[in-house]
UniProtKB/TrEMBL annotation:
Protein name: 2,3-dehydroadipyl-CoA hydratase
Family from the record: Belongs to the enoyl-CoA hydratase/isomerase family.
InterPro entries in alphabetical order: ClpP/crotonase-like_dom_sf, Enoyl-CoA_hyd/isom_CS, Enoyl-CoA_hydra/iso, Enoyl-CoA_hydra_C
One Pfam family, short name: ECH_1
Coiled-coil intervals: none
Keyword Lyase: yes
Keywords: Lyase
Protein backbone atom coordinates (compact mmCIF):
# COMPACT_ATOMS: atom_id res chain seq x y z
CA UNK A 1 0.00 0.00 0.00
CA UNK A 2 1.47 3.32 -1.08
CA UNK A 3 0.91 6.33 1.19
CA UNK A 4 2.65 9.16 -0.58
CA UNK A 5 2.83 8.02 -4.19
CA UNK A 6 0.20 7.49 -6.85
CA UNK A 7 1.35 5.15 -9.59
CA UNK A 8 0.06 3.81 -12.86
CA UNK A 9 1.58 1.90 -15.76
CA UNK A 10 0.22 2.53 -19.23
CA UNK A 11 0.08 -0.15 -21.92
CA UNK A 12 2.94 1.56 -23.75
CA UNK A 13 5.46 0.75 -21.01
CA UNK A 14 5.46 4.07 -19.13
CA UNK A 15 5.19 4.04 -15.35
CA UNK A 16 4.00 7.38 -13.97
CA UNK A 17 4.80 8.10 -10.33
CA UNK A 18 3.13 11.08 -8.71
CA UNK A 19 4.51 12.43 -5.43
CA UNK A 20 1.47 13.01 -3.24
CA UNK A 21 1.86 14.86 0.05
CA UNK A 22 -0.04 17.99 -0.97
CA UNK A 23 -0.40 19.24 2.61
CA UNK A 24 3.40 19.68 2.78
CA UNK A 25 4.03 20.64 -0.87
CA UNK A 26 5.33 17.10 -1.44
CA UNK A 27 8.17 17.51 1.06
CA UNK A 28 10.25 14.35 0.77
CA UNK A 29 9.98 12.78 4.21
CA UNK A 30 11.75 9.50 4.84
CA UNK A 31 8.64 7.37 4.26
CA UNK A 32 8.02 9.00 0.87
CA UNK A 33 11.64 8.60 -0.17
CA UNK A 34 11.58 4.91 0.86
CA UNK A 35 8.39 4.36 -1.13
CA UNK A 36 9.97 5.97 -4.14
CA UNK A 37 13.08 3.77 -3.87
CA UNK A 38 10.91 0.64 -3.41
CA UNK A 39 8.71 1.58 -6.37
CA UNK A 40 11.74 2.07 -8.60
CA UNK A 41 13.24 -1.24 -7.44
CA UNK A 42 9.99 -2.96 -8.44
CA UNK A 43 9.96 -1.09 -11.76
CA UNK A 44 13.55 -2.23 -12.39
CA UNK A 45 12.43 -5.86 -12.10
CA UNK A 46 9.29 -5.39 -14.22
CA UNK A 47 9.99 -5.84 -17.92
CA UNK A 48 6.66 -4.15 -18.75
CA UNK A 49 8.11 -0.86 -17.44
CA UNK A 50 10.46 0.71 -19.97
CA UNK A 51 10.53 4.33 -18.83
CA UNK A 52 9.38 6.23 -15.76
CA UNK A 53 7.84 9.68 -15.36
CA UNK A 54 8.06 11.31 -11.94
CA UNK A 55 5.77 14.24 -11.29
CA UNK A 56 4.29 16.17 -8.38
CA UNK A 57 1.33 18.47 -7.99
CA UNK A 58 0.42 21.77 -9.63
CA UNK A 59 1.87 23.92 -6.79
CA UNK A 60 4.95 21.85 -6.12
CA UNK A 61 6.98 19.06 -7.64
CA UNK A 62 8.59 18.79 -4.19
CA UNK A 63 9.56 21.51 -1.69
CA UNK A 64 12.60 19.62 -0.40
CA UNK A 65 13.36 17.34 2.50
CA UNK A 66 10.77 17.48 5.25
CA UNK A 67 12.00 20.30 7.48
CA UNK A 68 9.84 19.25 10.44
CA UNK A 69 11.29 15.74 10.30
CA UNK A 70 14.82 17.17 10.00
CA UNK A 71 14.24 19.24 13.15
CA UNK A 72 14.20 16.04 15.24
CA UNK A 73 17.62 14.84 14.05
CA UNK A 74 20.85 15.51 15.96
CA UNK A 75 24.36 14.69 14.72
CA UNK A 76 23.96 10.98 15.43
CA UNK A 77 20.52 10.99 13.83
CA UNK A 78 21.91 12.50 10.64
CA UNK A 79 24.88 10.10 10.66
CA UNK A 80 22.56 7.10 10.94
CA UNK A 81 19.94 8.50 8.58
CA UNK A 82 18.79 5.82 6.06
CA UNK A 83 17.98 8.48 3.45
CA UNK A 84 21.32 8.31 1.60
CA UNK A 85 20.62 4.63 0.93
CA UNK A 86 17.26 5.52 -0.65
CA UNK A 87 18.90 8.20 -2.77
CA UNK A 88 21.54 5.67 -3.87
CA UNK A 89 18.81 3.26 -5.00
CA UNK A 90 17.06 6.03 -6.95
CA UNK A 91 20.36 6.98 -8.54
CA UNK A 92 21.07 3.34 -9.48
CA UNK A 93 17.78 2.93 -11.37
CA UNK A 94 18.86 1.80 -14.84
CA UNK A 95 15.79 2.75 -16.90
CA UNK A 96 15.17 6.32 -18.08
CA UNK A 97 13.46 8.76 -15.72
CA UNK A 98 11.69 11.85 -17.01
CA UNK A 99 10.80 14.53 -14.46
CA UNK A 100 7.63 16.53 -15.17
CA UNK A 101 7.96 19.62 -13.00
CA UNK A 102 5.20 22.06 -12.06
CA UNK A 103 5.65 24.65 -9.31
CA UNK A 104 8.44 24.42 -6.73
CA UNK A 105 11.36 22.03 -7.08
CA UNK A 106 13.44 23.06 -4.07
CA UNK A 107 16.17 21.43 -2.00
CA UNK A 108 15.69 17.66 -2.14
CA UNK A 109 13.00 18.31 -4.78
CA UNK A 110 15.55 19.94 -7.07
CA UNK A 111 17.96 17.11 -6.23
CA UNK A 112 15.32 14.58 -7.25
CA UNK A 113 14.85 16.47 -10.52
CA UNK A 114 18.58 16.08 -11.11
CA UNK A 115 18.28 12.29 -10.69
CA UNK A 116 16.10 12.36 -13.82
CA UNK A 117 17.64 11.84 -17.25
CA UNK A 118 15.31 14.36 -18.89
CA UNK A 119 13.54 17.30 -17.25
CA UNK A 120 10.36 18.82 -18.70
CA UNK A 121 9.14 21.88 -16.83
CA UNK A 122 6.13 24.11 -16.76
CA UNK A 123 6.81 27.81 -17.40
CA UNK A 124 5.75 28.47 -13.79
CA UNK A 125 8.27 26.04 -12.24
CA UNK A 126 10.94 27.28 -9.83
CA UNK A 127 14.20 25.48 -9.11
CA UNK A 128 16.37 26.14 -6.09
CA UNK A 129 18.67 24.86 -3.37
CA UNK A 130 17.51 26.95 -0.39
CA UNK A 131 19.27 24.87 2.29
CA UNK A 132 21.73 27.68 3.12
CA UNK A 133 18.76 29.63 4.52
CA UNK A 134 18.31 26.83 7.07
CA UNK A 135 21.97 26.88 8.10
CA UNK A 136 22.75 23.70 6.16
CA UNK A 137 23.82 22.74 2.64
CA UNK A 138 22.34 20.36 0.04
CA UNK A 139 22.87 16.77 1.13
CA UNK A 140 21.56 14.64 -1.74
CA UNK A 141 23.86 15.65 -4.56
CA UNK A 142 22.68 19.25 -4.97
CA UNK A 143 26.11 20.82 -5.11
CA UNK A 144 27.68 18.13 -7.27
CA UNK A 145 24.93 17.59 -9.82
CA UNK A 146 23.90 21.25 -10.09
CA UNK A 147 27.40 22.40 -10.97
CA UNK A 148 27.52 19.77 -13.71
CA UNK A 149 24.06 20.77 -14.95
CA UNK A 150 24.33 24.59 -15.00
CA UNK A 151 28.01 25.43 -14.50
CA UNK A 152 29.92 26.85 -11.55
CA UNK A 153 28.74 30.44 -11.44
CA UNK A 154 24.99 29.81 -11.49
CA UNK A 155 25.27 26.72 -9.25
CA UNK A 156 27.30 28.69 -6.71
CA UNK A 157 24.84 31.57 -6.82
CA UNK A 158 21.91 29.21 -6.21
CA UNK A 159 23.60 27.24 -3.42
CA UNK A 160 25.22 30.22 -1.66
CA UNK A 161 22.22 32.58 -1.77
CA UNK A 162 19.47 29.95 -1.65
CA UNK A 163 17.51 32.01 -4.19
CA UNK A 164 15.52 29.99 -6.74
CA UNK A 165 15.63 30.44 -10.49
CA UNK A 166 12.77 30.57 -12.97
CA UNK A 167 11.95 27.76 -15.37
CA UNK A 168 13.16 29.92 -18.23
CA UNK A 169 16.55 30.41 -16.53
CA UNK A 170 16.74 26.65 -15.82
CA UNK A 171 15.98 25.98 -19.47
CA UNK A 172 18.58 28.48 -20.69
CA UNK A 173 21.18 26.92 -18.36
CA UNK A 174 20.48 23.35 -19.52
CA UNK A 175 18.86 21.96 -16.37
CA UNK A 176 15.59 21.59 -18.29
CA UNK A 177 15.24 20.34 -21.86
CA UNK A 178 11.73 21.62 -22.68
CA UNK A 179 9.30 24.18 -21.28
CA UNK A 180 5.56 23.68 -21.52
CA UNK A 181 2.34 25.36 -20.49
CA UNK A 182 1.48 24.15 -16.95
CA UNK A 183 -1.39 21.90 -17.97
CA UNK A 184 0.70 20.11 -20.61
CA UNK A 185 3.84 19.25 -18.62
CA UNK A 186 2.88 15.74 -17.58
CA UNK A 187 1.42 14.87 -20.97
CA UNK A 188 4.60 16.02 -22.75
CA UNK A 189 6.81 14.05 -20.34
CA UNK A 190 4.66 10.95 -20.91
CA UNK A 191 4.96 11.41 -24.69
CA UNK A 192 8.74 11.50 -24.43
CA UNK A 193 8.71 8.49 -22.11
CA UNK A 194 6.52 6.58 -24.57
CA UNK A 195 8.87 7.37 -27.40
CA UNK A 196 11.79 6.00 -25.35
CA UNK A 197 9.73 2.97 -24.29
CA UNK A 198 9.26 2.07 -27.97
CA UNK A 199 13.03 1.69 -28.47
CA UNK A 200 15.08 -1.45 -27.87
CA UNK A 201 15.26 -1.82 -24.05
CA UNK A 202 18.85 -3.06 -23.92
CA UNK A 203 20.05 -0.21 -26.13
CA UNK A 204 18.15 2.32 -24.00
CA UNK A 205 19.73 0.89 -20.87
CA UNK A 206 23.23 1.03 -22.34
CA UNK A 207 22.67 4.57 -23.62
CA UNK A 208 21.62 5.82 -20.16
CA UNK A 209 24.57 4.09 -18.54
CA UNK A 210 27.05 5.53 -21.02
CA UNK A 211 25.57 9.04 -20.85
CA UNK A 212 25.81 9.04 -17.05
CA UNK A 213 29.38 7.74 -17.20
CA UNK A 214 30.40 10.81 -19.17
CA UNK A 215 29.97 12.90 -16.02
CA UNK A 216 32.29 10.73 -13.99
CA UNK A 217 35.22 10.18 -16.27
CA UNK A 218 37.55 11.86 -18.75
CA UNK A 219 36.89 11.79 -22.50
CA UNK A 220 39.22 8.91 -23.48
CA UNK A 221 37.83 6.60 -20.80
CA UNK A 222 34.28 7.64 -21.67
CA UNK A 223 34.83 6.93 -25.35
CA UNK A 224 36.28 3.49 -24.56
CA UNK A 225 33.30 2.76 -22.30
CA UNK A 226 30.89 3.84 -25.03
CA UNK A 227 32.61 1.59 -27.58
CA UNK A 228 32.39 -1.42 -25.23
CA UNK A 229 28.65 -0.83 -24.78
CA UNK A 230 28.20 -0.34 -28.53
CA UNK A 231 30.04 -3.64 -29.16
CA UNK A 232 27.99 -5.46 -26.52
CA UNK A 233 24.78 -4.52 -28.31
CA UNK A 234 25.98 -6.36 -31.42
CA UNK A 235 25.12 -9.56 -29.53
CA UNK A 236 21.44 -8.61 -29.11
CA UNK A 237 18.51 -9.83 -31.19
CA UNK A 238 16.99 -6.36 -31.04
CA UNK A 239 19.97 -4.88 -32.86
CA UNK A 240 19.37 -7.26 -35.79
CA UNK A 241 15.64 -6.53 -35.63
CA UNK A 242 16.19 -2.73 -35.67
CA UNK A 243 18.51 -2.85 -38.67
CA UNK A 244 16.40 -5.43 -40.57
CA UNK A 245 13.21 -3.42 -39.96
CA UNK A 246 14.87 -0.33 -41.42
CA UNK A 247 15.94 -2.24 -44.52
CA UNK A 248 12.49 -3.82 -44.91
CA UNK A 249 10.78 -0.44 -44.32
CA UNK A 250 8.66 -1.71 -41.40
CA UNK A 251 8.32 -0.99 -37.68
CA UNK A 252 10.77 -2.95 -35.51
CA UNK A 253 9.37 -5.33 -32.93
CA UNK A 254 11.75 -5.24 -30.00
CA UNK A 255 11.79 -8.03 -27.47
CA UNK A 256 14.41 -6.86 -25.00
CA UNK A 257 16.83 -9.62 -26.00
N1 LIG B 1 9.17 20.51 4.78
C1 LIG B 1 8.06 20.43 5.52
N2 LIG B 1 6.93 21.14 5.28
C2 LIG B 1 6.96 21.96 4.23
C3 LIG B 1 8.09 22.11 3.40
C4 LIG B 1 9.24 21.32 3.70
N3 LIG B 1 10.34 21.35 2.94
N4 LIG B 1 7.81 23.02 2.44
C5 LIG B 1 6.55 23.44 2.66
N5 LIG B 1 6.02 22.80 3.74
C6 LIG B 1 4.69 22.97 4.32
C7 LIG B 1 4.57 24.28 5.08
O1 LIG B 1 5.09 24.15 6.38
C8 LIG B 1 3.07 24.50 5.04
O2 LIG B 1 2.46 23.67 6.00
P1 LIG B 1 1.32 24.30 6.99
O3 LIG B 1 0.21 24.69 6.06
O4 LIG B 1 0.98 23.12 7.86
O5 LIG B 1 1.94 25.45 7.68
C9 LIG B 1 2.67 23.95 3.68
O6 LIG B 1 3.74 23.06 3.26
C10 LIG B 1 2.53 25.02 2.60
O7 LIG B 1 3.73 25.78 2.58
P2 LIG B 1 3.75 27.39 2.71
O8 LIG B 1 2.59 27.88 3.52
O9 LIG B 1 5.12 27.79 3.19
O10 LIG B 1 3.54 27.81 1.17
P3 LIG B 1 4.06 29.11 0.42
O11 LIG B 1 3.41 29.10 -0.91
O12 LIG B 1 3.89 30.31 1.29
O13 LIG B 1 5.64 28.89 0.24
C11 LIG B 1 7.64 27.62 -0.33
C12 LIG B 1 6.11 27.84 -0.58
C13 LIG B 1 8.41 28.83 -0.83
C14 LIG B 1 8.02 26.38 -1.12
C15 LIG B 1 7.88 27.43 1.18
O14 LIG B 1 6.99 26.43 1.67
C16 LIG B 1 9.27 27.00 1.51
O15 LIG B 1 10.19 27.80 1.51
N6 LIG B 1 9.47 25.67 1.82
C17 LIG B 1 10.75 25.15 2.26
C18 LIG B 1 11.70 24.98 1.10
C19 LIG B 1 13.05 24.49 1.60
O16 LIG B 1 13.73 25.15 2.36
N7 LIG B 1 13.47 23.30 1.12
C20 LIG B 1 14.75 22.73 1.47
C21 LIG B 1 14.58 21.71 2.56
S1 LIG B 1 16.13 21.08 3.14
C22 LIG B 1 16.61 19.90 2.05
O17 LIG B 1 15.97 19.65 1.05
C23 LIG B 1 17.88 19.17 2.44
C24 LIG B 1 18.48 18.31 1.38
O18 LIG B 1 18.91 18.77 0.35
C25 LIG B 1 18.70 16.87 1.61
Amino acid sequence: MLNFLLTGTSSNGVLTIQLHRPEALNALNTALLRELADTLDNAAADSAVRAVVITGGSRAFAAGADIREMADLDLLGVMNDPRPQYWARISAFAKPIIAAVNGFALGGGCELVMHADIVIASRDARFGQPEIKLGIIPGAGGTQRLIRAVGRSLASQMVLTGEPITAQRAYDAGLVSELTEPELTLERAQQIAASIAAQAPLAVRQAKDVLLRSQETHLAAGLAYERKAFTLLAATEDRNEGIQAFIEKRRPEYKGR
